[in-house]
Amino acid sequence: MQLPERKRGLASEIWKHRKEYLAISPFYILFAIFGLFPIVFSMYLSFHKWDGIGEMTFNGLNNYQFMVTDPEFWKAVGNTLLIWVYSTIPMLFFALIVAFLLNATFVRFRTFFRIGYFLPNVTSLVAVAIVFSTLFSNNYGLLNYLFSLFGISPVEWLNKTWGIQLAVSMMVIWRWVGYNAIIYLAGLQSIPTVLYEAAKIDGASGVQSFFRITIPNLRPIILFTVITSTIGGMQIFTESQVLVGNDGGVSGGGLTIVLYLYREAFVNNYFGYGSAVGWGMFILIALFSIFNWRMVQGGGAKDE
């Protein structure tokens, strides 16, 4: 049986450039082993019951049915969304202000400040969580010590749902403000200065220039940071796990979706159910990202 002319031509082209394909093959081989295979296997595993050692037992959609009826899962979803709101909105707001200041001509040592703001992003996340656990400690935390100087009663931050979520949100803000500020700074530097000069000649104030020139020109970058922050915010794990443990602390206030997945899969050894939770999280992230994209794009369409 001979191959069709088109397929024979493709095969001959591949053979002709076999050295080039061989040179780039390590990336695709590693991606197939460590990227593509785990994705496919997790989908397959999500329809099975498996403890990681024994035989897999096919159970159809039972894992997904249990997931959508489990109150703990929806508590994790709610906690994750609340932490995202508490952290992402202030984070992007402060990042925009920092970028605007770093781009200002009156600020000296701008390179030093740019490096300084980016350093938290490359700091060990476990170390950051440990430091913040000392700041928000119930008995000997730095915040409670400062409160005591003003005669304010100590707050049991890590014994309250809102306190745990506030601590996790503060970690996210501290770590990612500088990263997003650098992205916004690159966008600010790409805006032609003639636009600001023309606005100044027309009598526009600095606030008017900011909302009429800066924000519209930064809209694609703002959309990018919103989407990436949504994806990152939905995957919060280390902050909660180091701060309050695998169960999410008191009343499960720090139980996020990924922490819930980790507990079910790697603590309780429900690997099939953990895979189902992972795919459920993927769907939630996709839907939430589409919602954010449409919201930002919709606002831009009205402005235009």
From TrEMBL:
It is found in: Cell membrane. Keywords: Cell membrane, Membrane, Transmembrane, Transmembrane helix, Transport. GO terms for biological process: transmembrane transport. Pfam families: BPD_transp_1. The chain crosses the membrane at residues 21-47, 81-103, 115-136, 166-186, 270-293. PANTHER family: ABC TRANSPORTER PERMEASE PROTEIN, INNER MEMBRANE ABC TRANSPORTER PERMEASE PROTEIN YCJO. Residues 77-292 form the ABC transmembrane type-1 domain. It is a multi-pass membrane protein. PROSITE patterns: ABC_TM1. GO terms for cellular component: plasma membrane. The keyword Nucleotide-binding does not apply. Belongs to the binding-protein-dependent transport system permease family. It comes from Paenibacillus selenitireducens. The keyword Ligase does not apply. The lineage of its organism: Bacteria, Bacillati, Bacillota, Bacilli, Bacillales. This is Cytochrome C biogenesis protein. InterPro entries: ABC_transporter_permease (IPR051393), MetI-like (IPR000515), MetI-like_sf (IPR035906). CDD domains: TM_PBP2.
